[in-house]
Amino acid sequence: MGRSMTGVVQRSEHRDRPESDPPVLGGRLPVVGHLPRLLMNPLAFLASLPRKHEVTTVYIGGRPIYFLTSHRLVRSLLTGEAGAFARGLVFEKAAKVFGQGIIVSDGEQHRQNRRLIQPAFQQHKIERYVEIMRSVVEKRTSAWTAGQPFALNAETHETAVEVLTRTLFRSDLADRAADNVKRAFPGIVAGIAAQALYPYAWMEKLPLPVNRRYERSAALFHDVVKAVIAEQRKNPAQDDSLLGTLISARDQDNAFSEAQLRDETVTMLIAGAETVSTTTAWFFHELAHHPEVERRLVAELRTRLGDRPISFRDFRKLPYTAAAINEAVRLHHPNWFLSRRAVSSVTLGGHRIPAGGEVAFSLSTMNRDPEVFDHPLRFDPDRWLDGRTDDLPRSAYMPFGVGKHKCVGDTYALAELTVSIACIARRWTLTHQPGSRVREVPWTTVQPADLVMVAQPRRIA
After folding, report:
1. Which CDD domains match (predicted)?
2. 50, 8, 51: which is closest to 25 by C-alpha?
C-alpha cells in the first residue's frame, strides 16, 4: 500500500517503460457499450472492475472511459504534472449551471478564483457560520413531530439549502432565495446526472423532459442569484455574509466579475447542499443500525457540551463524533463518478491514454476497498481511533480530494456536519420506519432512497 507514485503519470513522449492500451472490459454491447450494466447497479458495476490492470476501458455508447481502480493512480492523477489533465465529462455537463465556478474552472481562472474565495472560509468566518448553522438546525428540528414518519434525506436537503442561503446571503434576502433554490434543485440534479451518462452527445439536445427541466432550473437558479447579488451590492459595508465577502474580495488587482460572482454562488449552493445533506442522511441511517455507536456519540456530546449550544471551539473536544463523521464519509462518500480529460497523450500506470481521453474514478468504491480497509462495508468509527488507519497511504482516503482542486469549503462542510449531528442527536432518537428498505441511488451524489425515519424525543439518562 505504500508504493511510490513517482512516474505514475508521464507524458507519452517521455515514457521509460513499455506502454499498453488499457484492456477493454468484456461484455460490451453494440451501440450502448457497457451502459446497461452500469445503469443497472452503478456502484456494484464499478466495484466489480478488475484490479490487476489498474486501468480498464469501459464504453458508454461509443465513447471510451478509462476507469482507474487504483487509489495510487487516482492520487497521482489529481496531484500530477500541471496541465496533463483538465476537468472532464461530469464537470463539462455541469457547466450549464455552474458556469466557470470553482469546481468546473481550470487553469489560471481556477487559481485566481480560489485565491479570492479562500478568505470566506477563514476560521473567524467559520465561527460565525456555525452560529447560523446551529440556529437553522435547531429551528427546523424543533418542528418535528414525535412518532411521525418522514423522509430524512428530503429534510436534510432542505436544511442544508437553508443553512447555505442564510450564510451566503443577507438575512433579509435568504428566505426568498431558499424557496426558489429548493424548487430548482431536483431538475438540476437529474439533468447533470442524465447528461453525463448519455451514450451520445446529441441526446442532450433532444426535447426530453429531463433536458428541458434542466434548462429551466438552471435559468431559475441564475436569475435568483443575480437578483440577490444586485441587492447585496447596494450596502456592501453592512454585509458580513459569505457572498458579501466574495463581493469585497481582492487579490492584487483582481476581483470577481458579475458572471464569476454568479457562478461561484451557484456552485456553493448546489455542491454544498448536495454533499452535506446526503452525508447527514447516511449518518443517521447508520446510527439507527448501530445502537452502541449512538450511545457513545450521545454520551460524548452530553459530557463535553453539557446543556449549552455547540460552538466551533467545541469541535476539537469531540473525537468520537469526528471519527463517526469520518466513517460515514468513507462508507458513503457522495462522489461515485468523477473524471478528468487528458490534454495530450499521456501514460497512466503504464497504459496509453490518448489526447482527449476521459479518465474516471469512483471515490465511493475506492473507500470500500478490502485491500485498504478491513471489513470495508462495516460502519466502524473506532477504525479512526484505534490505530488501524494510522499507516494508510495518503492516496487511500481523500474525503475532500487533493491537489489544486481540493474542496475549498472542506472546513465549512465539516462544521455543518458536526453541528447538524450534534443538534439532532442530543434531542432526537431516529429509527427506521418498519418495512422501509433503504437503497443506494447514484445521481450527482449517492442518495439514500426510501430513507423514511421516525423521530422520538431522546430520553435523559
Report:
1. CYP170A1-like
2. 50
- The gap between the terminal CA atoms of the chain, to the nearest Å, is 44
Mean pLDDT on 24-32 = 95
Choose between 82 and 184: higher pLDDT: 184
> What is the radius of gyration, based on Cα positions, of the chain?
22
The model's pTM: 0.91
CA pair distance 278, 330, nearest whole angstrom: 13
Local structure of 33: helix, strand or coil: strand
Report the distance separating Cα 427 and Cα 153, nearest Å. 18
Coil vs helix vs strand at 203: helix
Cross-strand bridge partners of residue 432? 453
| Beta bridge mates, 86 | 341
In 349-438, beta strands by DSSP E = 351-353, 358-361, 428-432
In order of 295, 456, 461, the CA distances from 307 in angstroms are: 17, 19, 14
**Which residues is 457 bridged to in the sheet?**
428
What ranges in 290-405 are assigned the alpha helix state H? 291-305, 319-331, 363-366
pLDDT value of position 8: 46
Residue ranges of domains in the chain:
9-457
Dihedral sign for Cα 182, 443, 364, 270, please.
Answer: negative
Residue 190, classed as helix, strand or coil, is helix
Residues contacting 142, CB < 8 A, separation 6+: none
Relative to beta strand 63-68, strand 358-361 is: parallel
Grid coordinates of 163: 443553512
Instruction: Classify domain 9-457 at the CATH superfamily level.
Output: Cytochrome P450 (1.10.630.10)
Helix (H, G, I), strand (E, B) or coil at 7: coil
Q: Please count the other Cβ atoms lying within 10 Å of the Cβ belonging to residue 390.
A: 8
Question: Cell digits for 246?
Answer: 466574495
Tell which phi-psi region holds residue 435, choosing left (phi > 0), alpha (psi between -120 and 50) or beta: left
Is residue 458 within 8 Å of 298, Cβ to Cβ? yes
CA distances from 147 to 17, 431, 455 (A): 64, 10, 6
Q: State the amino acid at position 2 in one-letter form.
A: G
Rounded distance between C-alpha atoms, residue 133 and residue 160, angstroms: 9
H or E stretch at 453:
strand 452-457
2: pLDDT strictly greater than 90: no
Q: Give the SS3 label for residue 343.
A: coil
Instruction: Please give the single-letter amino acid code of residue 36.
Output: P
Give the separation between CA 461 and CA 294, rounded to whole angstroms.
13
Instruction: Find, among 217, 332, 338, the residue nearest to 277 by Cα.
Output: 332
Cell 465556478 belongs to which residue?
101
